[in-house]
Design a protein that fits this description.
Blueprint (H helix, E strand, L loop, with lengths): L14 H51 L2 H4 L2 E4 L6 E5 L6 E9 L5 E3 L13 E7 L2 E7 L6 H12 L4 E8 L2 E8 L8 E6 L19 E4 L4 E5 L2 E5 L3 E6 L2 E5 L7 E8 L1 H26 L1 E2 L4 E2 L6 H16 L1 H6 L2 E3 L5 E3 L1 H10 L1 H8 L6 H13 L4 H60 L2
Antiparallel strand pairs: 1-15, 2-14, 3-11, 3-15, 4-8, 4-10, 5-6, 5-9, 7-8, 11-12, 13-14, 16-17, 18-19
Length: 447
Amino acid sequence: MAGISSGGIGSGLDVATIVQQLVSADRAPTDARHDRTSRQLQAQISAIGTLRSSFSSLRTAVAALSSKDAAQARKVTLPADNNFTATATAGSAVGQFQVEVRALASSQRVASGAFAKADTVVGTGTLTLTAGETTLSVEIGAGKNTLAGIRDAINATAGGKTVTASIVTGDDGAHLVLNAVDSGSAGALKIAASGGDGGLSALAYQPPAATQMTVAAPATDAIVKVDGIERTSSSNTLTDLIGGVSLTLTKAEPGTTRELKIASDPSAQRSSAKSFVNAYNGAMGAIGTTTAYNTSTQVAAALNGDAMVRGASRELRDIVSDNITDLKSLGITINKDGTLKLDEATFDAAVAKDPGVAARLFGSGDGTMAFRLDAALDRLLDDGGMIDSRSDGLENRTRSLQKQRDALDFRMTQVEARYRAQFTALDAMVTKLQNTSNFLSQQLSSL
């Protein structure tokens, strides 16, 4: 603490040192108490932060454990020589299906008759292109009336959707080729020409009427049979053929069936269970570390004896213990120190045999272990919950301690000023007495 420095005026008293030592002695017990309290508060704040982090990790693991994606994950098995691919969403149908790919869907291509070259003038007017339920009107003016100009006008209007146009040059000349973007009969093309000089009629295509345009590739639908039930589709990807399964056809092989197998996939749930076990053990470890008492050193951890932590630990352990039978059947056992251990092989076998065991433990319904753990962790971690309340209390005590330190500084400033005034006066008095003594000595010596 800074103060006004003053040596003795003439007595030889070191007033500054004396005052400093007196003030230090006065405040030392209070400073020591404040420092001790500050260390305790900081240790408790750090410990609460450790618990908050470990409980948050546990809550995240519990949420993943009870998610539908983990509980109802599916595994797709295809033959090595498959002619289709498949994916299955969580909760999709489980079983074996015989799949026969009879035909693939393809998009239609039509080609014009031959023109001398790409910059040959065709004509002006309006081309109306229809693919399925989509219709485009393409205006062909004098500046776009060549074969290349018409191609560019179609592509600019379509923007890569509905239809694309290109020019293919063969031995007989240049051909305008139109390709439907969408596959299947639903995307079949029709082209009407109107207005202008009539030259665009060479590009008209209105089947079954005769036309100068020819079909380079027909629009075909995909045909697939699943367990003998036939389905026609304009796309090679079918998302509603088998519930929750997306099937993409890659090769047509009429008369040949291949097996699609969809089964429960324990790996996702096993991974979630493993994460839960690790997070639970982490939380128990954090509780143990922050509440421990070392009998050798007789030193207690920051939250030793804390009622909130003790209650949280008891509740989490009780929830797990209440479900010990189902946990054991899934290969999850409780060690002597209260931590959990997962046997992955036992878990996989148990889930394959009886998925209901995992559902009873990990489901989100009332009364399940996951539900109860989540509720307990919410009470701890939610805004205004027990962790927040405890943390706020510690922060308030820290602020209060700082106010006490500030008050001590102010009080010690006053004490220092009082000591300094007292010793300065004493110094002056001693100096005066010394001066008087010196004077008397001189007078006596002259007699």
